[in-house]
Amino acid sequence: MATKTLGTVPLERINDYCWRIPKDYKPGMRVEGRIYASDELIELVKDDQAAEQVANVAFLPGIQKASLAMPDIHWGYGFPIGGVAATDPAEGGVISPGGVGYDINCGVRLMRSNLFWDDVKPHVSRLVDELFRTIPAGVGREGNYRFSRKEMRRLLGDGMYYLKERGLATDGDIAVTEAHGRLKTANPDAVSDYAYERGSTQCGTLGAGNHFLEVQVVQAIFDEQAAAALGLKLNMVCVMIHSGSRGLGYQVCDDTLAEFRHVPAKYGIQLPDRQLVCAPIESPEGRKYLGAMCAAANFAWCNRQLLMWQAREVFARVFGRSWEALQMNLVYDVAHNIAKLEEHEIDGRKKQVWVHRKGATRAFPPGHPEVPEPYRHVGQPVLIPGDMGRASWVLVGRPGSMEQTFGTTCHGAGRVLSRNQAVKQSKGRRIDRELLGRGVVAKARSWRGLAEEQPDAYKDVDLVVEVVHGAGLSQKVARMRPIGVIKG
Amino acid sequence: TQRFLPAEADVRFDEQGGLRATVRGERFDPQRHRPGHEVKAITYHGLKVEQRDGEWLGDVIVDI
Fold first, then answer.
1. Rounded to two decimals, what is the model's pTM?
2. CB contact under 8 A, B28 and A419
3. Within 10 Å of residue B23's Cβ, how many Cβ atoms?
4. Which of B35, B43, B63 sits opposite A140 (nearest CB)?
5. A429 in a structural domain
6. Which of A58, A96, A487, B46 gives a 20 to 30 Å CA spacing to A232?
């Protein structure tokens, strides 16, 4: 068996796509670690402490099967980004805010249209200008929608169903959103006043960092049947949106980390890293966080809905037809920073477990009851944003995800350069002009934002997708090429 | 303190271990200020507090 070490972490090669961290690496690991990566990608993991974090997650009480990491793994707070862990409440299982992330229900949605590359080509500049002018992006920008305290309470409890009452979402939108854009376990009263305040002006804003709204073209199709089910055709113009729960979700995470400081000691939980603070799911502290986390997740679905709604209005203005006439229908919306209660088969028994996905995407296979009816025969759509110069991907879930990763696949390209390194490498360059040379019109609030997010800062998303495809976690459907980008 | 951008801080420690600080700055104005980063978290990663040449040094990694 091939073995290697990353820093001090021993790795055994299981197959072409997966590496094992043995359970005896550190006393206290309850399960082994598994990192999904090719020989090429595992080399990119070696410089950070993400592998150590995979081993640390294996300490969590109630963890099932293995502490997992997807091929876009990199260093994160407590859990690595790309980390997946399932915990069983019946075995004292815990919930850890570091396993969800600061940006609760950060996620991606994809909207199609009946426009094709030739229709849009002459209008790309104007379209991107209009999108940039209309859709609030960047640090500290307020949104075009305001919600009172009472309205926020409804929004946090009822998610996209509340926006439908307000005429800002349709049944069609709700039908193809993960969890229908509403987790019923949300508890709006578990969310702090400060979080409410931050959220009230931020629903329908993009934010900063790696969040974006892109106009994309379907560049290649790899699975005709699945593409047809998803309504995707070659050269079709689509809109991809990547954002999360903004200041509200951040505040929920921050509040909880402070409240959880002494919680592990209270329940006798030993942790190798205090950033893994957690609470038993069946405890007042655990239940409060779960209620607040689900409320923040509902907020995030509403945020992406309002971003999409504004994009529809812009397209209607630019092309002089209603969004309905342009058939700008949602393909799917999927979360990649979340914990969900799901049924999984573990050692031959069906169990209800909380699956933490931190920078990892749900990828349910064909036939799963939670896959929307029109897609059930092909599998749940999975949306993988790449960097803004190269490509993004549409995949569908495969049976391998249920067998190996609690129904999970990767979430993006993953950084190779830190933000500071990326900025240093951009000195004296005009990233927007370089992108234009690649056929991408990019507008950002800050030069620094563009520099941090330049294509070279990321792993090649194609390599990441190759691993999850090869490992049988999900299957390639379409490669999307960006033509217009707006960012914070 | 909402939307307040601090620019200068004067921090003084007293004998009892408390501190007094005067912070000067202004309200955030998107027309004039160009924010670089939203800080995600103050991490415990590599956290260090040590005495060096009679002075205290704190090392904190900020997750952005």
1. 0.94
2. no
3. 12
4. B35
5. yes
6. A487
